[in-house]
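User: For a benchmark we're assembling, each entry needs the component sequences followed by a predicted structure for the full assembly. Here are entry 17's components. Please fill in the structure.
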Amino acid sequence: MSNIREVAKRAGVSIATVSRAFTNPDKVSQSSLKKVMDAVDEVGYRPNMMARNFRSTKSYAVVVLVPDFANLFFSKVIRAIQETGQKHGYNILLGETRDSKEREADYLKLVETRQADGVIQLSPHIPEQELLPHPHISAVAACGACDTPYASVRMDHIAASFSIVNYLISMGHRKIGCISGLSDNPHSRDRLKGYKQALAKAGIDFDDSLLYEGNFTMQSGHDAGVYFAQLSQRPTAVFSMNDLMAVGAIKSFKEHNIRVPQDISITGFDDLDFATYTDPALTTIRQPAEEMGKKAMLLLLQILDGKPPTQQEFILKHEFVLRDSVVQFSG
Amino acid sequence: MSNIREVAKRAGVSIATVSRAFTNPDKVSQSSLKKVMDAVDEVGYRPNMMARNFRSTKSYAVVVLVPDFANLFFSKVIRAIQETGQKHGYNILLGETRDSKEREADYLKLVETRQADGVIQLSPHIPEQELLPHPHISAVAACGACDTPYASVRMDHIAASFSIVNYLISMGHRKIGCISGLSDNPHSRDRLKGYKQALAKAGIDFDDSLLYEGNFTMQSGHDAGVYFAQLSQRPTAVFSMNDLMAVGAIKSFKEHNIRVPQDISITGFDDLDFATYTDPALTTIRQPAEEMGKKAMLLLLQILDGKPPTQQEFILKHEFVLRDSVVQFSG
DNA sequence: TTGTAGGCGTTATCAA
DNA sequence: TTGATAACGCCTACAA
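Assistant: Structure for entry 17:
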């Protein structure tokens, strides 16, 4: 592992010239440049980025705070973040929090200790327990539900769930079950609002017994399915707050010999890749995962560049995806 | 953003003492320690890890080279890597390669330029195009197929696929289709070997028309399903080289009104979370994802610590997972 | 166009 | 137990 000094000696020039040859080649004469590059090849020199970054007080790394790495939705977002970051010379440090504020604080420390320049927060914002914003931490929130006290990129979950529940109603359903995420999750709250608004608009009373609280996992969706299947007054359609739970619910409906969608319709949320491959294929809401990831990274880059964002909040459009899991109700 | 000098001044001690207070508290008197800590609180000091790492010539970061983020199998592995790394003070830099050697080289550069201390390679090893081992790069391979010229953690894919195809045969199947990954993928090769060995052992001739080359995606599994469905001599069972393709195939069988498993049995590989929730639940091979991730990280840590591993290769055990996608054939 | 030299924040060596 | 000081590798005024 050679350093710049060795290259300089070998090339018969000064350290400064070698440095310039890398960062500002046009400020170096052709002959010097050649001598330097030859020497570089000879000794196999690579600039020490740790030194360079240290010197420039920038780490060129960004931490992505993600609740659950094994959630395909986040995988997509992270991919977009990485691609965008890479184009601008930034690396991505993984920070899986698994909903632990302690772990989150640990990752935030990476910024405080200068191992990262900023943070992209993928967990939804819960004011009471939020560690961000932090005076010394550049941060952007993405994929959240409500607005945050710092820049964010998200979609309108109320409107999205409103539209899909509305669709269910337009298909003749009036007894519509709801599988929610944990009730204190902001996404759950917003999507529940949309559900209730759609019911209200159609003059349907909200029925507490049709609301089942899951936690966004397939398992909890399955549990919800069992619950609905055993209800004496079974719903004719179910609005699931994500695709994963919908899959679990479908599974348990089938186990109870309830046909989907003939006996019960169901909708999802997220439009994960496998939503096309479930049986039946899921009618769902597509979240613009890639767009959110990309936009979030660009926003953070801008902030790191010292330019405050023009808007605090960027709301991206969702998409209604029609497939086969909903059928006209004719009771 | 204050530095150690400021803390020293404030505490009325030397910078050396401040440094020791952090790295070697017991070498500092109680009174000095208190003075330092008070000063630290006052000015909100955080050690600059960039400087510290620079000084120690270690970045405490490790790059994980992963072909595809949106593959839940890798998500699990990476999670285990991160958890293990974190316990030892290491951070994880994400490196999604998407099978591009160019991108891979970019990430490897992170190690050459000292932004990372080592690499965990999750792509299977293909000797002709392999960038590793590299003289200056500490690396460990995980989840690969064949042996690598550097330390690796993997399972025996030949044995695993042998066992599951053997199970199919024991259930009376003799016409067994195979959905493989790309034929030049080492995993595909090994699993194909296991498939062929099981057939051979049962005295069944290998039939080329029963082999469909996919690429490990659901879409390609679906294509395979279409292919098998339209075959005049349809197989009675299908060995899919991963769960994802099995899901795709099941979908297309159903579209062709072929019942699974009554009309055709199928098996998967990986045992992803959703393998329980497919219809029918998948009989499959569980890869020890977490164990491989953890072991790989520990191995790399050991190498970074200057201790060469006791073995070059660690073969972890797979597990046969019996569920509902295979049924006795009684033709 | 080039070289000299100072400094980034930390740790480690060596004396005191 | 402490402090002064020399690195670590690089960049960048500044001067030549």
